[in-house]
């Protein structure tokens, strides 16, 4: 890729670690949110990687805890006029694109994603223009502007199926932004894929040699990995899949121990479906190495109960998601293609 964009520049956006609160404070804010959800006729849409307190609150109040694809569908189909999205900014933007008539609120609008930050629209547009004969497929973890530049949008749960389809009709692909996921898809499908060179800071930190040693310590354990992980981690995995696919795999596997190579936020939901299995975090610190994310997205960690309550109660520019109308219109086309393609898969 003949571009000058510095992917390491995303480190400038790294947020500080969240401040812990007491059990009493958690109870106070949880109760306040429950009252506000009823008062405002709102529903919580939370990602698997958010704090367990947020996930359990979403479940208790009739909301949704899911991957980004199901979050998008749930928000567009739910009758509530107000959506409280617990995740990172692109998830709130996606909810707003699919439900422009609804008010979409977030704990903070500063919860970024390294994949989104690593794919700025100007550089990406030039990249696409250099390869204009290719169909542009972008991951959901991108800005509204990048989505609007794409022909298709996908999540990890349907990426392989979509690329298989596009390859079958002779399309050459630009894939963005995660190079590891692009590499995984290329190996699975054999498609002609030219990848943007972004990466997720969480999955990129998993250490191959440390995982090999961990497998020796736990010989009865299965390794479950998200395809945003480097190839060496994928090669060691028993199961590779999206967050929802990994949770389903945890149920079907007979192994008493599971080593999980994705964000530790998934442990809450996964442990609920396999209460008798031991969940182990894949190592992010090798010999002489330190981790920045340590298997938990620092921007996901910005979601907290207090700010969720304040967002619900007061709204405003610090919490309400707004999307430019022209960008929204452009991004809606590939988003709807994704949802239609997903629906066609369930009908087969």
UniProtKB/TrEMBL annotation:
Pfam name, any one: NadA
Top EC class per UniProt?
A: transferase
A molecular function (GO) held by this record is: metal ion binding
- Record keywords, A-Z: 4Fe-4S, Cytoplasm, Iron, Iron-sulfur, Metal-binding, Pyridine nucleotide biosynthesis, Transferase
> What InterPro entries does this protein's entry cite?
NadA, NadA_sf
Q: Name one GO cellular component term.
A: cytosol
Protein name, per record:
Quinolinate synthase
